[in-house]
Amino acid sequence: MMVEQRMTETTAVSWAAAELGGAKLGDARLNRRLVRVAERLGAQPSASIPVACGGWAETQAAYRLLAHEDVDWQAVLTPHWECGIERMGHHPVVLCVQDSTELDYTAQPGIAGLGPLSYLRQHGPYVHPTLAVTPDGVPLGVLDAWLWTRDRATFGEDKRHWPIEAKESMRWLEGFERCAELAADLPDTRLVYVADRECDIHEFMVRARRQPRIDWLIRATHNRCLAEGDHPWDRLAQAPVLGEVTFALPARPNRPSRPVVLTVRAERVTLSPKGAEPVTITALRAREESPPAGVEPLDWRLLTNRAAVALAQAAELIQWYGTRWSIEVFFRIFKTGCRVEALRLSTLERLEPALALYLIIAWRIQYLTVLGRVTPELSCDAVLDPAEWRAVYVAIHRQPPPVIPPPLPVMLGWIARLGGHLGRTCDGPPGPQALWIGLQRARDLAWGMHLASDLHAHSTS
Ligand SMILES: [Mn+2]
């Protein structure tokens, strides 16, 4: 315990202090505890709370924090929101990507307050975060998160006739409105709300018209009626081709990387479904005309308020929609990396602030992964604790650390090596998994080094 105390004293401002130091939980001790718990859980994101806390006293302090009546998920996320908004202000365009995922706690029957998931026999909450991402994929923060549970009483009922306010679909509209509010505080940044097929809701497009400060880009599900009586995708099939977009489709868990050529068509159309207000939008279709044999062609039907008159505008929108994948990576870090579905807490009220903490921890892992790729000049001490990067340096080189911190991508390569990434040219840049394992080892190494130096100090004094 003594050694541990000294360790936090010698460490410069930790990432958790920088990110959560502005917390206002109503009591300075509680604020400090939030930072300390975030440091602990963030150092070992895959471990259980007791293991990450490393002792009964610290574990109890973490549980007391999560059970405290003033600590809800919004209060935990607020300081991180503020830091995220600050980061967004430095970018001309920021994509606000939203998506939902279910968290399955069926293996733990004892958690009070959960509801059914896709099936009645499963239970857990849903989480619907907004991830702020630059067009080249740097996550800037979690801006918002809708957490909800389904009602057993109305499970399976036909909810089509329900007002939008009562439906789960409302999360897309409310998430959008929250981004629109943010846009007012970011005059030099253009926000673009990005969502998948689930957001193809006519009411959403109607409401979005009232928010000129923010753009939106979604994938289409429906082939709605146009004012002239025909349908957008039929009309687009007749439209002239704007041009072709070529890029390397990144590898995904179920498919290898391959070069793709998409034929792009776009047209301004007025959607006019029966009994609803008409809205004029751009319908854009990007389709792979000649995919390799046996491969399903890429075919994106996108809807947006933005214009796509020239190929460059359309290509930009396609690239932005591609960046939507960032939120899928984020969910993988959150669920597989941080193992949030294994959290053992007795009620939803305690689970929610813990989930909020892990949203921030998952964001940081993704931030590190991507930042190393897009900003090769950045020094590693911009995002890593000094004790961490120094320990990694010593472990890899068996030499004392340099005075000047190495660049972040080089350091991330070493950290990923600790996490099992082989670092050959054919392996590509390290992914989040090698990094979250490596970061845990870096923390252990830092801890070991402090222990060793402390023992040494004792033996020579
Ligand atoms: Mn989705």
Characteristics of this structure?
globular; alpha+beta; binds manganese (II) ion; Transferase Inhibitor Protein From Tn5, Chain A, domain2; Transposase Inhibitor Protein From Tn5, Chain A, domain 1; 17% strand; 43% helix; 461 residues
Textual characterization of the structure:
With 461 residues, the protein is of the alpha+beta class. It has 2 domains: 2-72 and 348-460, Orthogonal Bundle (Transferase Inhibitor Protein From Tn5, Chain A, domain2), CATH 1.10.740; 81-332, Alpha-Beta Complex (Transposase Inhibitor Protein From Tn5, Chain A, domain 1). It has 15 helices and 12 strands. The chain has helices at residues 2-10, 15-20, 28-43, 49-53, 56-67, 73-88, 170-185, 202-208, 232-238, 311-323, 326-337, 348-374, 386-397, 408-418, 432-460, and strands at 93-98, 101-102, 115-116, 123-124, 126-133, 139-148, 190-195, 214-219, 243-249, 258-271, 279-288, 299-304. Strand 10 (258-271) and strand 11 (279-288) form a beta hairpin. Helix 3 (28-43) crosses helix 5 (56-67) and helix 7 (170-185) packs parallel to helix 8. It is globular. Bound molecules: manganese (II) ion. Residues 99-100, 196, 198 line the site of manganese (II) ion.
